[in-house]
Amino acid sequence: MEQDNNSEDDSVGQAEDDTQPPFPLGLSDSEAVEVLWQVRTQRRQTEPDLPDTVTRLTTPEGSIVYLVGTAHFSDSSKKDVATTIRAVQPDVVVVELCQYRVSMLKMDEKTLLKEAKDINLEKVQQAIKQNGVMSGLMQILLLKVSAHITEQLGMAPGGEFREAFKEAGKVPFCKFHLGDRPIPVTFKRAIAALSLWQKARLAWGLCFLSDPISKEDVEKCKQKDLLEQTMSEMIGEFPALHRTIVAERDIYLTHTLRQAARCVEAPPNAEKVPAVVVGVVGMGHVPGIERNWDKELNIHEIMSVAPPSRIGWVVRNVLKGAMWGLLGYTCFRASKGMGRALLSLPTVQSLLENIRMPSGEQKQRRTRFPWTSENSLVLLAVTSISHVGMDDMGISMSRSCLERLEFDNVALKKLPLDPSTEPGVRQVRGACFSRVQPTPLKNPKFVAVSGPALGLLGLDADEVLKDPLGPEYLSGSKVMSGSEPAAHCYCGHQFGQFAGQLGDGAACYLGEVKAPVDQSPELLHENPTGRWEIQVKGAGLTPYSRQADGRKVLRSSIREFLCSEAVFGLGIPTTRAGSVVTSDSRVMRDIYYDGNPRMERCSVVLRIAPSFIRFGSFEIFKRADEFTGRQGPSYGHDEIRTQMLDYVIETFYPEIHQNHSDRIERNTAFFREVTVRTARLVAQWQCVGFCHGVLNTDNMSILGLTLDYGPFGFMDRFDPDFICNASDTSGRYSYQAQPAICRWNLARLAEALVPDLPSEQAEEVLDEYLPLYNGFYLSNMRKKLGLLRTEEPEDEMLITEFMQTMHNTGADFTNTFRSLSQISCPTLQEGEDESEAIKQATELLLQQCASLEELKAANRPTMDPRELAMLLSMAQSNPALFQMISDRKTVARQLDRLSRLKELMDTTAEQLRAKQTEDWSSWIKKYRQRLARECESGVDMKDLQNERVHVMNNNNPYVVLRNYIAQNAIEAAENGDFSEVQRVLKVLEKPFSVQQGLENPGWVGRGEAADSGERDETGEEGNTSGAEARVIVPYDSKPPVWANEICVT
Q1: Which range is least confidently modeled, 507-516, 577-586, 868-877?
Q2: Where are the stretches annotated Disordered (predicted)?
């Protein structure tokens, strides 16, 4: 966690500093920054008189680190910390906490004691389930130790950290860093390093610590000579425990302090100057940090957790019940009586006598007292890890259902990790992932959750909504135990040009959650790994954020959340969205890039998929592009490309891996399967009128999923040139271009896989793409038209003519297809009036056609007439210059619009209606003739009609996520009313059926939000009018007039 007092995104509120001098009126921002910097410089003492517990370290750049050694239950340590921070006015304060223990900054004696007393068998079982038998029990026992000391001393541990946090908030520009290794890693490595006998001795010592402890006893733990003797005894008896709990954390803390001690930028010219850092650590870590300060360190070595040993597996599965009953129940229900028996033992009495002895006498006796490892462990609990609480251990089953998620982060184990932990944007070479820390949100809260999506993780939506920690965990503001936040490195061809390194600029991989054991066979077939990768999108800066801030806002987050689940509801492969969280953190956004920015709420979407690896993931190895000159950051690391390809095939295409022993054949089969999935996917998009607005190679899933919902759109009025992204001025990603673009992207993937996939084999597979796409498209369209019994060559022409008629008449894509099920098969019986049947069907479809004014508006050129005239002249006079600034396709599209508009200007409404009637009557006649041939096999007409209606209504949705539906939900949410988002989600979960009571929006005519404090201070989005001034239409309606104002970029 990083806290910056200049940032509006501080995760925890800072104490007010009444001593800050008033600013002179009229200062600019830069002048105010300079004044504050000078104030801090004046306060900083050049030769401070600091307590004896402070150690001074320096870096080659001249930065100074003041290391305050503390005891975690000590009033004097709090005073030492406050004195040091006030004297040196640091740039950074680093404390011996990790992201799992940030609650230590808010904890008090009452909370800690309550958590300790509330421990029961259920929580013991949960700890064991989450962390293993030994690790879970040791965590419980350590909490008991901490609670015992808290009760004896009347004060909670970690007071010096809270004091550091408070004092840092009073220092201008001071940042607050968490410097310790994640506690789950420490516990698991510690327990794994002990033998079974050592684990038992440790548990025994911790079980029966019940003797009174005074504040004077704790203060003695700050004495370096006593600590050194304690540590040396531990090294002798428990070398592995000392290494994992003390020595490895010394290394990690040293690394963090070095990172914090990098030079800082001083105003007004951002000149690099040496930093001043205050580190607040347990006294037991000070000697190790001093020893490591000038050494070369490898922290990745101390971050891995070995898999459970065979012995551990046997213990867990064979003796689990006995351990739960004996060590769980007995230790916590009968410890008092057993403690008295233990206290009568000579060794324990000697230990207690030694602790209580006056310091002078204790010093004399230390030479003859036989310190044992058990004595050392008791002192270690006080000086190093006694500040562990329930929140630190991840045992709070009663607090959060999300803490029960079991992670197995295979991608980070199988693919190379960026060794650098340098903050900020940078080129990442030779790695597929970089470790990151999500930036917490202020006051996160749920907007909505998707029950079906969360069900993939074994979570219940109602339970998640009621979970007070749910919004924190699902926004990345708090990190779940087992989660390893990281950002994925990838490149991409954007709008046809290679862009170089891109990567997860706002998304953050949290880890891979094991699927519940009762997950359906269909899902397991779709995702053979048995794990679901979860991401938070909008969680802050990563090395790949480029010029952005790593944040997403409410409107874009709601659109991604709703569309992910809408596309899934339509039966189309897609990544999922489990929740959307908003907050009181805000960022500036210029929605239309028109110079009118506004503050918007930071929001985060939880995304779920088997994997988010994409075509662009393999482009990080690309050589310098011949057009842009850019190359992939890992160019030359061919072994990593092969490693990633092996990982993808073995993990997500296991059948292909098993069926091909030859690597070239295997890789070709893999590429063929990706081609098949991509062709099927884009055919499904086309058949529901969906358009992906940024169909770059970095937005194409290697698993054939719909990925990255930026500017997307479902067509309203059918137009093959439909462009859903207003910034796609060339129409590269128009509706009709999408199938060809997907093939182009596949070709770029094939290039990226050379030589693992030879070019000859790739070309052969690419030649199969168009027939595959056509096959999928025709199969889907036959179902949409109810052509079920026979397949005829003429069907393709019938479908083409249907689409052309929709275009000519301006018919609504979704509703026209849905209406087709109401056109019945001819009965071929005497007395049926064919002309009347055609007339009724025509009237039905005319209801979905555009009016004259709507068609005029739709066909107006999007280019200024003067610009168009200039381009036409340039195309004749200077073709080379014309090709540089435009293209013939774009100009031709504008000329077609102009021609169509001129035609419409000379047409009356009556003439248009007559032409639309003629066009539809002609097509319906052919359609009924084709339907008649479905009946020639002598089938029962009633059964056939019922089957047709059933199949058609399950392939032609009743509702899709039109832009105006999403916009209405967004504006309701921006007014503090999240119910419309939840209502739309419910409608989209069953898009093929009419749900009683959910036909119309729920946010109608309400005007302002009931709680005006919830509304965004900036008002509603863009230049759309307020909901109270609009006509609200049913979800299955054609868009209202105001929908034309919506602009998605």
Answers
A1: 868-877
A2: 1-27, 999-1028
| Residue 592 neighbours by CB under 8 Å, 6+ apart | 1022, 1047, 1049
Q: Which residues contact 279 (CB under 8 A, 6 or more apart)?
A: 65, 66, 67, 68, 93, 94, 95, 179, 253, 257, 260, 289
- Of 49-53, 444-448, 933-937, the least confident: 933-937
User: Out of 3-17, 281-295, 382-396, which region has the weakest mean confidence (pLDDT)?
Assistant: 3-17
Residue 387 backbone phi and psi in degrees, to 5:
-90, 15
In the predicted structure, residue 990 carries a pLDDT above the cut 90: yes
Sign, CA dihedral 31-37-38-40, equals positive
The CA R_g of the chain, rounded to the nearest whole Å, is: 34
The DSSP symbol for 706 reads: B
Q: What angle do CA 191, 194, 199 make, to 5 degrees?
A: 80
For 689-707, write each residue's pLDDT tens digit: 999 999 999 999 999 999 9
Nearest Cα neighbor of 396 from 74, 119, 768, 748 is: 119
- Residues involved in catalysis: 698
Q: Cα–Cα distance between 67 and 257 in angstroms, integer?
A: 9
- Decide if 1042 contacts 1030 (C-beta within 8 A): yes
Q: Which two tokens stand for residue 362?
A: 């204790």
For residues 142 and 149, what is the distance between their CA atoms, to the nearest angstrom? 11
The DSSP 8-state label assigned to residue 457 in this structure reads T
CA distances from 965 to 713, 862, 1027 (A): 11, 25, 12
Residue 117 makes CB contacts below 8 A (sequence gap 6+) with 147
For 245-259, 365-379, 817-831, which range has the lowest pLDDT when averaged over its residues? 365-379
Exposure of 745 in the CB half-sphere (CA atoms within 13 A): 32
Token pair, residue 310, equals: 């065979």
The pLDDT tens digits of the residues spanning 496-516 come to: 999 999 999 999 999 999 998
Answering whether pTM is above 0.90, one says: no
Task: Please provide the DSSP assignment of 19-36 as one string.
Answer: TSPPPPTT--HHHHHHHH
- How far apart are alpha carbons 660 and 666 in whole angstroms? 5
DSSP for 198-210 reads HHHHHHHHHHT--
